[in-house]
Specification:
By secondary structure, this protein is α/β, with parallel strands linked by helices. The chain has one domain: 2-Layer Sandwich (Transcription Regulator spoIIAA). The chain has three helices and six strands, in the order βββαβαβαβ. It has a six-stranded mixed sheet, covered by helices on one side. The longest helix has 18 residues. The chain is globular, with a radius of gyration of 13 Å. The chain starts with a strand and ends with a strand.
Length: 123
């Protein structure tokens, strides 16, 4: 299985899912016109990551903004991460800009909804 790297654009985030290292980062802003289409290969790569049986999985979320369509896709991502966490040591950190309580609360909400432990860190 190959790693997945998607450069950021004005309306899509930078994505790096390194299969060998068990590392996933999502960074910048997310408001694509077709959120389902944009996130489909990411979800597919994460789901097939389960077959690799990693020893460790690290996820870093560094989003500055996301829209409602992206929010639904993010929840699906966290549901897959919950599955991954049942098979290996998993850590998820959500970085947010100093004073951005909306992003901090979003991370806490995703943690409650998905059952994934998400550590929040202010930049």
């Amino acid at each position: 299985m190959e790693s997945l790297v998607i450069p950021h654009t004005d309306d899509t985030p930078y994505v790096n899912l390194d299969i060998e290292k068990g590392f996933f980062v999502l960074e910048n802003c997310s408001f694509p016109e077709d959120a389902v289409g944009f996130y489909a290969p990411i979800l597919e790569a994460l789901q097939s990551f389960l077959a690799v049986a990693p020893k460790k999985f690290t996820c870093e979320i560094k989003l500055k903004y996301f829209n409602t369509s992206s929010a639904k896709q993010l929840l699906q991502i966290f549901e897959v991460i919950r599955q991954i966490s049942g098979h290996c040591d998993t850590s998820v950190t959500w970085f947010y800009d100093k004073g951005d309580k909306d992003m901090q609360q979003a991370a806490e909400r995703y943690s409650r909804l998905s059952g994934v432990v998400i550590v929040t860190k202010e930049n």
